[in-house]
Structure formats: structure tokens, C-alpha cells
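Archive transcription. Copying these from loose printouts into the bound notebook so they stop getting lost. Printout 1 of 2:
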Amino acid sequence: MPEQPHQSAEPGAGPYDALLLLSFGGPEGPDDVLPFLENVTRGRGIPRERLKEVGRHYFLFGGVSPINAQNRELLDALRKDFAEHGLDLPVYWGNRNWAPYLTDTLREMSEAGHRRILVLATSAYASYSGCRQYRENLAASLAVLAEEDRPVPRVDKLRHYFNHPGFVRPMTENTLTALAELPAAVRDGARLAFTTHSIPTAAADTSGPVPGHGDGGAYVAQHLDTARVIAEEVRAATGVERPWQLVFQSRSGSPRIPWLEPDICDHLAEVHAAGAPAVVMVPIGFVSDHMEVKYDLDTEAADRAAELGLPVSRAATVGADPRFAAAVRELVLERAATERGLAPARCALGALGPSHDICPAGCCPARTPQPAAAGTD
């Protein structure tokens, strides 16, 4: 994190004077695993034995989630890109569930004199857990600063970037790389399984507006739009029309509550039974190769495919790809220009167009309403 106080950014970023990378967080050693999971599930009444069971996933990787290291790489990529393009905007990092904690980072930013902060959340899509909950965390942290009688900065969240070329094009390239890793004999017949985090169907149905389609359903619609673009770009690059489907992973919670389906492991069994010679798993719902990718796809789904005798490969996520860092810079400049009353170009692929800058009232509501920053409620 920057060590020296920073005044105002150059006009390109004005009126903003800092960017906050806001992420989920993860344990960085065996002793961190249970405390981290307790942070994630606080208030849900989940038994400690269940947390220990989930914790085994982390212990397979030495008790370390890759997410923090990957966020450090993304920080480096953002700072490098900003410097190379003359964007004088310091970049900070805070997490919801592990150090560096969001409240501590916002306190540091306030002490450094930052008063207009843009926020990049490591979730590209609309949903309660992927957007609204981050906004609630921001509101709670800002309330702590107010209680401490510190200056409370204004925070604005960058728009959803699921269809920005700097997110989509690296995923297309990574899909092509994964296809090339399959045996040549099955490559042309390989199906594409676009994967994302399953959420309750009720949460999906209220996950923000979809242009031309009403006030809910954005979570699935945005993923389908991104998948469609990537599938078409892969077809154009390979000359092969491939069947594809949006599938889900990482389900948690009560089995009595309906969640989005099919699960990736069930999907692999289904397409194998239908005669598919191979599958490429494309994790479009994730920004980095964190634990839910490493375990749910590279371990659990890969083991299921091996049991079936089904060749699979997995596309990498965007991570710290320089094109993604450039996309963040473009989103910063776009939002800054909008705040100055200009009408900048807003890059987007697919049919849905660029997402909104400010979340409307009632967008992605929680079961228990909480104050949320960076929106109209």
C-alpha cells in the first residue's frame, strides 16, 4: 500500500483521488483457516464441525488460499499500467473477510487525505453476494470511521465489467489455450462448460435490472451474454461450432433452498452419457484462480471427469492479465469523465450493453435490509 499521503490525482481521474481494490480475502496459513471461515459465515449459525469440513479444502493446499497472492499480483499490474499511462492514482487493497481488512484500509485512506474513492470489486456480475454485499460492507466500514470521528470519504463503485473487452478477450484466449491442451482426437468435438458460482434462485431472480427484460435476473442474463460472446469468438478462431452451456459450482447452504443448476459435476456426467468426447471448463464467473476454482474445478470436477473417462481441461481466469488492468484504467477514466459531466465512450461486448454506474434502489436486495454505500439506497 502507498506509504506517503497523496493529494489529488491528475485531471484524468478527477474528481477521484484513489482506487480501492475490494476483495473477499482468504487464509494464508493453516492457523487462519477456521478464523477465516468464521468471518465468512458470521451470523449464519453454521456449526463449527461443518466449518472444519469445509476447511479440509484449504488444507489440501497447505491452508493457503491463492486469492491474496493473486490480488497482490493484480495490484502490481494496476499500478504498473497506471504509471505507464500517466494515471496518477494510488491503489489500495482491502478485504471483506481477512487481512488487509476493509475497515483498516479505509481508515488508512482517510488518514492519507483521500476523500473521493473509486472501488473495484473482484466480482464482475450483478448479485447480492457479488455486489450489494460489498456495498453493505463499505457502508459498515464508513460508519466505523464516522464513529471514530474521522473524515468519511465518498466511495463510488465501478460498474459491472463482465462484458468489457478487457475481461472477455482474455477469457476467449484462455479458452483457446485450454482447447489446445486436449488430445487432438477429441479437440474438435469438445463442449464448452461456462462455470460460475451457484446462488439461490430467489437471489438470481432479484439480481438487478436487465435492459429490456425487467427488474431482475441480471446474474444469469449477464453470464449467458458473456458466454455467448466467448463461444462465438472461439468458433471464429477455430472454425468449429461447439455446444456450450452455463453451469454452476460451489453451492452451499440448506439443501431445501433451490439453487441454480446444473452443477458442473452433474453436467460432466450428463454430457458424457450423451457422447461428448471432451469438455473445456471456462470459469467466467471468477476473476482469479482462487480456492473455488482450484478445488471445485481442478480437484472435484477433474476427479469426476477422470472417473467417467472424460477428457477435460480448464481455462485460466483473467487474473492479473495486462488487458484486464487496462480495462480497469478505462473504467476509472470513464467514471471520472462522467462525474465531470462528460459523455465518455463505454466499452461493452454482447447484447446487454454497459452496466449502470449507480445501483438503483432495491437492486439485489438482502433478506435483512442493511445500509449500502455507492448506490441509491
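Printout 2 of 2:
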Amino acid sequence: MAFTARSDQTRAAILDAARRRFGTDGYERATIRAIAADAGIDPSMVMRYYGSKDGLFAAASDIDLRLPDLSAVPPERAGETIVRHFIERWEGDLADEVLIVLFRSAITNEAAAGRLREIFGAQVAGALAAGVDDPSELPARAGLVSTQLLGVALCRYILRLPPVVAMDVDTLVASLSPTLQRYLTGPLPA
């Protein structure tokens, strides 16, 4: 039992160090050696637990967006529900800043960009599936919703565009909700 607890602590220390290092240095410049030093362990331990830098990055960027169950939401409120959840997720529940690390890394690294596509592709489509009448439209609708979520994340939390940063949450939600609602329930161009 003590071995398992020690192993769990080591894994957690590695992931914390990796998230910090990927966040400050980006994927390309972060090294296993630097991450291990930050975690206070030998680099061979990082390789033992995660196999490679790619494996470590995948584990460090494992994100659950915890999107709301839209089947419990009136269809006309789905856009607002998703926007509010996403903004509050970014602003209130990201003590470890995993989304920011992943987002920054995705701009310069294809593996990180692929990871971001996987997370948003699967999780947004999964959240929308119950409310989309035509399943053939699900990928397009999920993609369009993702453009807005990722766009506001980039402008508000990464680039810190002053007019977008200055908006309070309710104003931002009210501004974005109609667009998301249209992507969710409006007609798609042929």
C-alpha cells in the first residue's frame, strides 16, 4: 500500500511539473530532464511512468471539459448553457491551468494541436449529440461551437484582448449565446 501511495505521489509530482514546464516553455522546449528536475526525481522515473515526452504530454493534457448534460436543458437555452459553463470553467475551475497549457502548446506543436482537436471534437460532439436532430449534422455543429469556445478562450485568456477581458461574464455570455444557439439549432447552409 505504501508503494502505491508513493507511486501516486511521484506521478502527481511529475504531472504538476510537466504542466508548469509545458506552460512556460511550450512543448518543443520542455525537456524530460527539466521536468524531472522540477519534480525532484531522476529523469528515468518520468520515462518509467510515461514512456516518452509525447506520453507525458498526453497525460498532462488530459482534460475533461465537464460539459453540461443538454438533455436536461430547454433546447432554446442550450447555447447559453454551454457558453456560461465554458466561461465559468475557464474562470473558476482551472487552478492547474491545464487548458491554457494545452492551448499555448497547440499553437506551435502539432501533437498538442491534435490533442486539442481530440478533446474538443469528442467532448463537444458528445455533449451536443442528444440535441441534434440530424446526426449527419453533428460534426459540423460541434465544429462550429468549438470555433466560438476556442476563439473566446484565445482572445480572453491567452491574448488577453482588452475589450473581451473587460466584459463581465454575463455580458460575454449574452454576446456569444445567440451565435452558439444558431450553431446548435439553426439551419446549416447546404
